[in-house]
Amino acid sequence: RIFGEASEKNLYLSQLIILDTLEKCLAGQSKDCLRLDETMLVKQLLPEICHFIHTYREGHQHAADLRASASAVLFSLSCNNFNAVFSRISTR
């Protein structure tokens, strides 16, 4: 558990940096370089990204940014790994 307003803000900002970096890496990836290990990593990454989207805290100033950034990562994942993303959606 994070205590203090400054600590919580720093946590949100660090998560935003990680999500933005991940989205940029995924957006620059070509479809030709997909491998089996990457598909497995995508399947492990999807629940974490969905967690960011679903744990939206109303009223927190960085929560909307965090959700938007996680949505951008999900979009980038679906561009190159649509089957894994669609499989997750269909099982829900």
Automatic annotation (TrEMBL):
Top-rank taxon, per record: Eukaryota
Question: What name is this protein filed under?
Answer: Neurofibromin 1
Gene symbol of the encoding locus: NF1_10
